Amino acid sequence: MEAALTDAELTVLGLIAEAPRHGYELERVIEERGVRNWTALGFSSIYYVIDKLAKRGLVAPEGPRGGAKSRVTYGATAAGRDLLAAATRAALAEPAPVRARVLVAMANSPVLPDSEIAAGLAERHAALAQRLAELRGTRASQEPLPTPARAVFDYSEAMLAAEIAWAADALATYQKETAMEKYDVKQARKDLYAPKAKDFSRVDVPELRYLAVDGHGDPNASTAYTEAVEALYGTAYALKFASKAEGRDFTVGPLEGLWRAADPASFVERRKGEWDWTMLISLPEWITDAQVRAAVAKAAAKKDNPALAHLRVLALTEGPSVQILHIGPYDDEGPVLARLHDEYLPANGLTFNGDHHEIYLGDPRRTDPAKLKTVLRQPVKPA
What we know:
Residues 203-380 form the GyrI-like small molecule binding domain. With 383 residues, this protein is α+β, with helices and mostly antiparallel strands. It folds into 2 domains: 7-177, Winged helix-like DNA-binding domain superfamily/Winged helix DNA-binding domain (Arc Repressor Mutant, subunit A, Orthogonal Bundle); 186-382, Regulatory factor, effector binding domain (Multidrug-efflux Transporter 1 Regulator Bmrr, Chain A, Alpha-Beta Barrel), CATH 3.20.80.10. The chain is 48% helix and 19% strand. It has 13 helices and 11 strands. The strands form 3 sheets. Strands 4-7-6-10-11-8 form a 6-stranded antiparallel beta barrel. The protein has a two-stranded antiparallel sheet with strand order 1-2. The longest helix is centred in the middle third of the chain and has 33 residues, at 147-179. It is elongated, with a radius of gyration of 32 Å.
């Protein structure tokens, strides 16, 4: 079966079938007709494409090969004209998939702040407008155009105009979102989410509301733990997007965990199979229980996760607490907790008054374990 032609091969073959041409003449026609607005065909690649077509017997040099290679004139062979006709019929009838690189960029855009996305879209909008102006200038210089050429210019202009309209709409959306105040619990409550790593500090934690899922056992080996975390994030992001649509945006908070065990020494000794846990993500104060129920339903529609049935809203008041920032792997927390339990609390006349609380400020999937940051918090009361 005859191998398919690439867009570049089909373009060059069509121009040679239209009239015998050498490389420099092909470059001139490509520039004049604005071909590079709809196909990637650099000047240096023209000769590469010609060589490929010649090796397949689709084009052949006409006349003797005297002088530079770039001045050799090529014409289409009978086989080339037949394949050109077949490929043209197929290209006319079959809608091409959209493979614009900007779609890849938008899919990855959550890694950038909204302000940078808006700046990129503004730059794209200006570049597209410039390209459309140049295309219209090229077209005007060649009028009157034959019907096929007019159709090519019409299509190119329509595509550019559509891209400009899309870029303008997307830019307006991001400019609106950039202007919208976004609540971030880590910024709003730095006293709770940004302790020092050197010394223990005391804080008074007021009532805060969380999405919560309970469980038991080693988080590294428990399917229930994985399902709980997925349920929390799926619901939190559904809440974020619903709230944003209503005009109030927020950054999804970090994963947090309440940890408890019959023997507190199991934390120091990392006997994880003995641990009970409640995994949490904080909620902005304006989020209602009804919104949470709707978000859970939306998350459940996307993925069947048994943990969603056990997700609840938890109002938690920890009150006086001692906390510190731990930097490093989770399994290296033992010495810090031993210092808290065996030295700091007794020396300050304090004892436990609630679950051990951890706030995971780093993403273990993307962060070097040595650089992970975790807030370790312990509610306390006088001994």
